[in-house]
Amino acid sequence: xxxxxxxxxxxxxxxxxxxxxxxxxxxxxxxxxxxxxxxxxxxxxxxxxxxxxxxxxxxxxxxxxxxxxxxxxxxxxxxxxxxxxxxxxxxxxxxxxxxxxxxxxxxxxxxxxxxxxxxxxxxxxxxxxxxxxxxxxxxxx
Length: 141
What we know:
- It comes from Companilactobacillus ginsenosidimutans.
- Keywords: Membrane, Transmembrane, Transmembrane helix.
- This is Competence protein ComGD.
- By secondary structure, the chain is an alpha+beta fold.
- It has one domain: minor pseudopilin epsh fold (3-Layer(bab) Sandwich), CATH 3.55.40.
- It is built from 1 helix and 8 strands.
- The strands form 2 sheets. The protein has a 4-stranded antiparallel β-sheet with strand order 3-2-1-5, covered by helices on one side. It has a 4-stranded antiparallel β-sheet with strand order 4-6-7-8, with helices on one face.
- It is rod-shaped, with a radius of gyration of 26 Å.
């Protein structure tokens, strides 16, 4: 008698090994996506802060009202003519100190330095506000 020795499927060991390799690849991809997401959130928050700062200066000058900018632990608050706008900071980004900045009706402000520390990239993003003009100068270290 002759036995049929041809197999028509995978053994349990082969299926388990394939599943292990597939799950490992998915896990690595998920971790990379999370790192990318955190980096993107930081960049977006900093860009939003820069844009809102410029808008605050322009609106204060053009509409002739004071602007208050509060830098807190988890957000930056822009108050213009009673209207409040918050820029939420991601958990990986925080200011090195809290401060309040007043922008006069003429768009002038005192020089200040705002620093945001990233726990993700270990960088310190420094924004220096120039005297009177309020221009932000950015430097990442």
